[in-house]
Amino acid sequence: MEQYKQEFIEFMVKSDVLKFGEFTLKSGRKSPFFMNAGAYVTGEQLMMLGEYYAKAIYAKYGTDFDVLFGPAYKGIPIAVATAIAFSKLYGKQVRYCSNRKEEKDHGDVGILLGSKLQDGDRVVIVEDVTTSGKSIEETFPIISGCADVTVVGLMVSLNREERGKGDKGALDEIKELYGIDTGAIVNMTEVKEHLYNREVCGKVVIDDEILGRMNDYFAQYGVK
Questions:
Q1: Is 106 designated active site?
Q2: How many Å apart are CA 63 and CA 171, to the nearest integer?
Q3: How buried is 62 (Cβ within 10 angstroms: 0-12 exposed, 13-18 middle, 19+ buried)?
Q4: Sign of the dihedral through C-alpha 11, 81, 24, 171
Q5: Were both Cys, which of 73, 93, 121, 153 would link to 181 (CB 3.0–4.6 Å)?
Q6: Buried b (16+ CB within 10 A) or exposed e, 63-73
Q7: Annotated active-site residue in 14, 30, 88, 104
Q8: CA separation (Å) from 139 to 13, 104, 111, 125, 135?
Q9: Are 58 and 89 within 8 A, CB to CB?
């Protein structure tokens, strides 16, 4: 596993973004782990988050894109932080764009924040995590309706590796439905491998009990 992935896994735990216990998801599933990207709140955390996204995007898509699109609301700071990091790490100036939940009819009018999309733009979408793909269902028509653009791919921070609406994982469903490449900084297999019996901040994050619960969860909801 790449060094930046190992660092990112521990970064999520230290930032109290990735937690282990018992959580009820919107889907009603009882999950032994939960990720909340809203817990990235400090300047240092956002700076580091942007750099991890930039490294993962560079590894998968290179620099052949023009715009980072972050769906409202959690995708907005991710897009901004990643655009800054991409400039810093790779000297590539990419624009950021996001959508509003409600279209504005005065001042900076329209549905978009940041850069307006232009014909010919190549776009990478950035999100925190995708479980059902609902956000992309809302976002994709907005992007394609604003200009004649190419969506290069979607990058999320964590692939939960569980089934979406059918038998496939949410990222695979998105790839099949929209014809766009998908990726994640890390997936839950990598998280389990790295954190099992490992101390972070003086505490073992995934012990035998939690690992057993995770394995039971993936036996029921994991991608086959």
A1: yes
A2: 22
A3: exposed
A4: negative
A5: 153
A6: eebbbbbbbbe
A7: 104
A8: 29, 17, 11, 9, 6
A9: yes
Taking Cα atoms as reference points, which of 149, 63, 108 lies closest to residue 139?
Answer: 149
C-alpha angle 27-28-30 in degrees, rounded to nearest 5: 115
- Nearest Cα to Cα of residue 187 among 49, 45, 59, 18: 18
- For residue 40 the two structure tokens come to 């990235």
DSSP string, the chain: --HHHHHHHHHHHHTT-EEEEEEE-TTS-EEEEEE-GGG--SHHHHHHHHHHHHHHHHHHHTT--SEEEE-TTTHHHHHHHHHHHHHHHH----EEEEEEEEEE-SSS-EEEEESPP-TT-EEEEEEEE-SSSHHHHHHHHHHHHHSS-EEEEEEEEEE--BB-SSSSBHHHHHHHHH--EEEEEEEHHHHHHHHBT-EETTEESB-HHHHHHHHHHHHHHB--
Q: What is the dihedral of CA 171, 50, 11, 154, to 10 degrees?
A: 0
Contact 94/123 with Cβ under 8 angstroms?
no
Report the alpha-carbon distance of residue 52 to residue 49 in Å, rounded.
5
How open is the CA angle 46-47-48, to the nearest 5 degrees?
Answer: 90
CA 165 – CA 170 distance, rounded (Å):
7
At 60-117, the pLDDT tens digits run 999 999 999 999 888 999 999 999 999 999 999 999 999 987 665 554 557 889 999 9
Give the chain's residues under pLDDT 50.
Answer: 107
pTM summary value: 0.93
